[in-house]
Design a protein that fits this description.
Keywords: Signal. The protein is mainly β. The protein contains one helix and ten strands, in the order αββββββββββ. A hairpin with a 5-residue loop joins β3 and β4.
Length: about 200
């Protein structure tokens, strides 16, 4: 009887191992919130503001490792406060973001924990700045139309629903002029739904 149970256990282990080795493809929708903050060289301080993102993700993987490209529209916001005058510049970006992530997944039976990292390319579609009355153009910045960042994150899959949390570290300066050495860092949380 023990050999029967051992045989059954070995069969299940073999099926599970082969399922992890076979390539898979998944496609889904995702949306969430981001919390942006500018990193600058002691010219001003930055206050977090809440933005949004939404779009598509795909996942191709085998043997517990996957590649996950994403495409989404993102609204990023931050308040910039001048250290010298206290004036506030409220900055808002709308961007097309393309993360290209490599990750690994642990778990079985419809529940899995994911860890991922990779570059994120951002194309600025629209940018808006608003000032207090006294600020004028003195506090205005000239921002670039693209940015490069690196994402680090973790996620949880429960059947077709997924939850993600990520930190995005700005690698490139996003300003042409106005503020010295400005980079955009943010934290995101989101929920996704697998459609394939």
């Amino acid at each position: 009887m023990k050999s029967f149970y051992l045989t059954i256990a070995c069969l299940f282990a073999g099926f599970y191992a082969s399922a992890q080795v076979l390539p898979t493809f998944q496609l889904g929708l995702k949306a969430g919130a981001n919390f942006s903050k500018f990193d600058s060289e002691n010219t001003f301080s930055s206050e977090n503001r809440t933005g949004f993102y939404g779009g598509l993700w795909a996942r191709v993987g085998a043997a517990g490792v996957y590649f996950q490209p994403e495409l989404y529209i993102s609204g990023k916001k931050a308040n910039l406060v001048s250290d010298a005058t206290g004036e506030i510049n409220r900055v808002r970006f709308t961007s097309l973001d393309v993360p290209l992530l490599i990750g690994t997944k642990f778990g079985a039976a419809g529940i899995g924990l994911r860890l991922n990292t990779g570059p994120m390319f951002s194309l600025i579609l629209d940018e808006n700045q608003s000032f207090g009355q006294a600020a004028g153009n003195v506090f205005k910045a000239d921002f670039k139309d693209q940015a490069l960042a690196w994402q680090f994150g973790a996620g949880l899959d429960i059947k077709k629903i997924s939850f993600d949390a990520r930190y995005e570290l700005g690698l490139s300066k996003i300003n042409k002029s106005g503020y010295p050495g400005t980079k955009l860092n943010l934290f995101t949380v989101g929920i996704g739904y697998r459609i394939l």
